[in-house]
Predict the 3D structure of the following.
Amino acid sequence: MVVGELAHERDVVIIGGGPGGYNAAIRAAQLGLSVTLIEKAELGGVCLNKGCIPSKVFAHAAQKMAELPHIKEIGIELGHASFQLGKLQNYKTKVVTQLRQGVEALCKANRIEVICGKASFLAEDRIGVESGEVFDVYRFRHAIIATGASYVSPPSINIDHERILNAYSIYGLETLPSHLLVYGDDYIAIEVAMSFKMFGSQVSVITNDGTFGLDEAVAKELQRIWKKRKIKLYQHCKVESVTSSPDAVAATLKTATGETVTVEGSHIFVACEAKANVDGLGIDRLGIQRTEQGFIEINYQAQTSLPHIFAVGDVTGGPMLAVKAIKQGKVAAETIAGKQSEIDLTFLPTIVHSIPPIAGVGLTEDEAKAQYEDIRVGSFPVAGNGYAGIIGQKDGLVKIISDAKNDVILGVHMIGVGAVELISSGIIGLEMAAREEDMKFPFYPHPSSNESLLEAVESLQAEAIHLSPAMQKGSKKKAVSR
Amino acid sequence: MEVKLHDIGEGMTEAVVLSYFVKKGDYVKADQPLVEVQTDKMVAEIPAPAAGIIQDILVPEGETISVGTTILTLEAKSPPLVETMSNQPNVTAESVHLFAVKKEETVCAKRMIERRVLASPYTRKIAREHGVDLEQVVGTGRGGRITDEDVYRFIETNNAKQTNHSSVAGGGTESQSFEKADDNAPSFSVIPFRGRRKQIAKKMAQSLYTIPHCTHFEEADVTELIRFREELKQQNFHISATAFFIKALSLALKQFPIFNARLDEEREVIHLKQEHHIGIAVDTEEGLIVPVIKHVESKSLREIHEEAKRLTKKAQENKLTLQEMTGSTFTVSNVGPLGGSIGATPIINYPEVALMAFHKTKKRPVVMENDEIAVRSMMNISMSFDHRVADGATAVAFTNYFVRLIENPKLMLMELI
Ligand SMILES: Cc1cc2nc3c(=O)[nH]c(=O)nc-3n(C[C@H](O)[C@H](O)[C@H](O)COP(=O)(O)OP(=O)(O)OC[C@H]3O[C@@H](n4cnc5c(N)ncnc54)[C@H](O)[C@@H]3O)c2cc1C
């Protein structure tokens, strides 16, 4: 230690002010701990500044665009509708700024010391913070690493953020691509494809397997909708290389049959692999264990291999989701405060704000088949829901899977209006270890999208009212015989 | 796929393969512990990098290997879902890798679901707060659901038993069963529980959980030994008392090899060891450590003395090599020089059969053969042994033999080869 170096003492020092970090900070403060939060860029992290929030601003606008024909249909004349991406960017900035100010205010109200600077571990109980010319040292009893992850370009593709874009730069575009190629297998790829399609871009999706990690029936419905919306799908393809000229890009694909195909567009979005933000953090010196992919290893309490140092969020690997980071942040803070908390990702939901939205939790049909002897599958088309008819959003389905042996619900998957909100019923049901009757017994508001879930549960035993007997028996038989 | 000894930190370069948890042909899940290795600082488990079948075990137990050595080979066999994905001809290994996030998601969900217990989050919290592993609890609710009452009943009936609540997420391994943060509100005195301390804890618990310990006490009149050591000193031979104890012990073990053995319960055999590798418990700043003098049965008093001295010094300087710390067949603990203690119930250095502790030597009035009272230097001995392997009578005969040698050090001459 440098002579004269001053060390500030803290109960908890948190590195990174993304959703993992700031949720941990607030919960720790609520539990009476003195908290210092160090952020080198802006509070809110990827989620607020260039991830969840910007992408959902786009999805929201896209949804409105999708509703335009229906708005006309119900008698509202808006004249000529046009879309201006520049204005949406302004709106995005406004929303992001407001939300960030909200986080800042909350940190202040909870007496969290927020420090701007780049942090690194100096020792097992010391963190140094570099901020311009100043270098301060903080001593801590507990530390939480919440530095997130960054997308790295695949080796064969050079992301230039001009015409070849990744998840960070796609939502920063100021002009609308005339033809956007979307290459990826994850929810972000679906959202990008849908949003830009609704804004008026021509969209072609290139994907490895086409299921996007979704339940098969949901993926099939998504593909049907894409076809209807004229989104071209290159399935079972891998992009070998991408070249760009001043006004176009060309992607060379290898198809399932080994053919090489070139697809041209004005821009390409590429889903990338994530890498933990640990460079220069000094954790290897401390011997903090990492996974083979370089993410920090943690246990169910978010503790690293050094029990007084915790890690939360994307830096710990697994699904790169804010919803997970938020929970881990809280669990870390609670554990530090001596509470018995636990992270259990079993029923971590997957959601996609596409048009229409997609949501799922628990086992997919394929997963359930692999793990259980005998399952039941119930499915209900959103078109059969009265409220969907009213609002003119009839695409989609709700699917539910149960264990035929004891009626326990195993998974809930849906695509269709309201799916992202409705999935919470499924999540709570699964967490409560609900059986069919537990989901069937309660009242479901009428008329509402909720009723699609009820009818899906009912269809497990061929009891759905708004579904013809043939369709229900079919699904039941299929589940048993397959 | 080769599973190698990778750098597990703290500057380690080599490790001893302690034991395998799997055998050839076993199916293992990703992250399942495969093998336990010991470095000079800790015991670690090496987890399976992926799900698959154990093809071959390349390093026998007990062997020392350096970082990078392949320990076993594994034929990666993915869980069913991923399998169907990779069966599609177009999905090359590389392309699966590109979307690693998604793949992990799948693996994660699958692994987690196996932990599912039918209990509501509220009930699960009660269990957590009492350190109850819900997988051990039988649910009496409908459909096997675990109720609050089931958990409370479990706590009551298992009050004696401590349930181990270690769990790891995020691709963690068992070796990573990290400790809980302190229970109460924060205080500023936290001692990291890892490294040597943790290893000691693990070994002690293992020994005490496994071995039915029986300790018996004996006293030895070491007056003659002291006198004999003085005589040797005159001749410029400085031989420590510990060296004499170790020599006498080795002679006693020759007569009673059952205490220099290892019980293999699974195969239902007791292995009697030919070699006498005697561990000496040494107290260091970081905690207890046990360097080993190998082949005491063929070493002279002087050799034993020199080696004990050298190893103790290295232990205190934290410079012991792995070889110098492993392989003991019997362990002694000389707490006499530490100044205290007239008796103890030492914990056996598992999987050995016995351990002997030597306590403080003290001048005491002793009634001699001729009924006179004399001032003699007396030392107490505590000997713990594995009651599965030997009985009290054998242990008494063993210590009697040992004490006779200590009380009449010249008798050891009889054993000169
Ligand atoms: C386009 C897009 C859409 C997304 N949509 C969703 C969604 O719908 N739902 C969802 O759940 N998730 C979504 N995500 C994922 C989500 O954004 C991340 O999972 C989440 O931000 C992870 O939070 P975190 O706290 O772990 O890390 P981050 O949000 O990455 O925050 C880490 C913070 O640490 C700071 N930092 C790093 N190193 C240091 C250092 N040495 N010193 C000081 N500060 C440091 C960084 O500046 C950053 O602010 C999306 C992501 C993207 C890119």
